[in-house]
Design brief:
The chain is of the alpha/beta class. It is built from 17 helices and 10 strands. The protein has helices at about 10, 15-35, 45-55, 60-80, 85-120, 125-130, 135-145, 155, 220-225, 245-250, 270-280, 285-300, 315-325, 345-360, 400-410, 415-420, 430-444, and strands at about 175-185, 190-200, 205-210, 230-235, 240, 255, 335, 365-370, 380-385, 395-400.
């Protein structure tokens, strides 16, 4: 515990420090209780850090912090037993050991407290209070109802690998095959799983809806598929491996982010010509680029406003222009992140009808939208990602829309998202149930 870590020893011996220490223990009692741990374990040095590691999923860090705390106790005991005659010779060594071990302990406590911030879904800046005035966040998080953990220690121990599908999607010459074993990141020297066990084959000409609650891994999945952030995966598009042939295939995938990156002072025509210069092969002549721009403007209904400035376009026109920029290279796979954001129902449906027409040309289209039910009749398949008990994005369903309704027992797509969302997020908390169910279906 590092309450007022950098203050003097005199203060640590004061009654004020004893009060802070008591408040810290009271707060940790409440935190342990909320996390499903035995509350009185919070009162025991070393055991407290070990159990905190269990609550945050940082068991290795918890064991090391517990060991370091034990070493600090031992150093203090040795210092008390040191005779006055030997204090000069051994005192400096004890001081060095105290500083060295204390700094390492400080680092590992910081990791545990950052893990606690994640468990309680709080911003990382809370770490400053945890490290230098830990009694305050301990009491607040331990005893105020507004501070609740997203999962318990028991949930953290739940091994999600016990229901891996164990099967991969077939790699065919046409269409998109995704066999993603895992996508990880390192946070504070700990390996964190963002996505695991996602396997699917998407046929050419299919328009696919990508569903999932906040933090389920939709953006991470998209970035893994388009090669922007590589995962431990095999992504094959029309017989070509995306990762091995990324340089040659990067323009065969169009990605339209939620926020467009267009210059408002350019015209529609100039914007598309710039996109053609960047995305079409250098062997294309100026006339061939112009022809392609004219074709794309006609497809997306932008010809009447070709000389208008981007800043003067309506919301729907800007959306169509941002899509047209990516469509210049005539990609085989088209991925769109909330293309209907900010559009009313009529304009959104018009936009999705255009996407349906593109899919009917043999293209594969994957779309993220938060209002899927108003255009669900235009989609062929749906991907449902959900967070398992370990907060890892997993595949809860991939397949036809009607089969998804039967699988989840829900009529609307928004109801499916609610079913897999955690209860703390306003959902039903059934993610693991459906992940396991789908894994069993795939295994068969």
């Amino acid at each position: 515990m590092f309450t007022l870590f950098f203050l003097s020893v005199d203060l640590k011996n004061s009654s004020f420090y004893l009060i802070l220490n008591l408040l810290y223990l009271i707060g940790m009692w409440g935190i342990f209780k909320k996390c499903g741990l035995t509350p009185w374990h919070a009162l025991i040095p070393c055991l407290r850090e070990h159990k905190l590691g269990e609550a945050t999923g940082l068991e290795k860090e918890g064991r090391i912090a517990a060991l370091l705390h034990g070493i600090m106790i031992l150093i203090n005991e040795v210092a008390l037993l040191t005779t006055p005659d030997s204090q000069t010779s051994s005192g400096s060594l004890l001081n060095i050991a105290t500083i060295f071990v204390g700094l390492i302990q400080f680092i590992y406590l910081a990791k545990l407290y950052l893990g606690l911030c994640e468990v309680f879904d709080r911003k990382k800046r809370w770490i400053l209070l945890w490290l230098f005035l830990d009694s305050v966040p301990a009491v607040l998080w331990g005893w105020l109802k507004k501070y609740q953990p997203l999962w318990t220690a028991a949930e953290m121990k739940n091994d999600a690998t016990s229901y891996f599908s164990g099967s991969k999607a077939a790699v065919l010459d046409q269409g998109l095959t995704v066999n993603l074993e895992e996508r990880t990141a390192t946070e504070f020297f700990k390996k964190k799983y963002l996505l695991r066990d996602i396997h699917m084959y998407i046929q050419p000409g299919h328009m696919v809806l990508l569903l999932g609650g906040s933090g389920a891994g939709k953006t991470t999945y998209i970035n893994a598929v388009n090669g922007y952030e590589k995962a431990k995966a095999e992504v094959v598009l029309n017989g070509h491996n995306m990762y091995r042939e990324y340089k040659d295939m990067q323009y065969d995938i169009g990605f339209v982010p939620q926020q467009d990156l267009m210059r408002g002072s350019d015209t529609v025509y100039r914007t598309l010509m710039d996109a053609a210069t960047l995305r079409l092969p250098s062997a294309f002549t100026h006339e061939e680029r112009e022809k392609r721009v004219e074709e794309v403007m006609d497809i997306f209904g932008l010809t009447p406003v070709k000389n208008n400035l981007v800043v003067k376009l309506s919301g729907g026109q800007r959306k169509r222009l941002s899509i047209a920029m990516e469509f210049i290279s005539n990609p085989t796979l088209f991925i769109l992140d909330e293309p209907d954001s900010g559009l009313d129902g009529v304009m959104a449906r018009e936009l999705f009808l255009q996407l349906r027409q593109i899919a009917d040309q043999g293209k594969i289209i994957i779309v993220i939208t938060h209002t899927p039910d108003r255009v669900i009749d235009l989609f062929d398949d749906v991907i449902v990602l959900a967070k398992d008990a370990n907060r890892t994005g997993r595949l809860a369903w991939f397949g036809p829309i009607e089969d998804a309704r039967a699988f989840f027992g829900k009529e609307k797509m928004e109801e499916i998202v609610k079913a897999v969302n955690r209860q703390e997020e306003g959902g039903e908390g059934r993610a693991d149930e459906f992940i396991m169910k789908y894994a069993e279906v795939q295994h068969v």
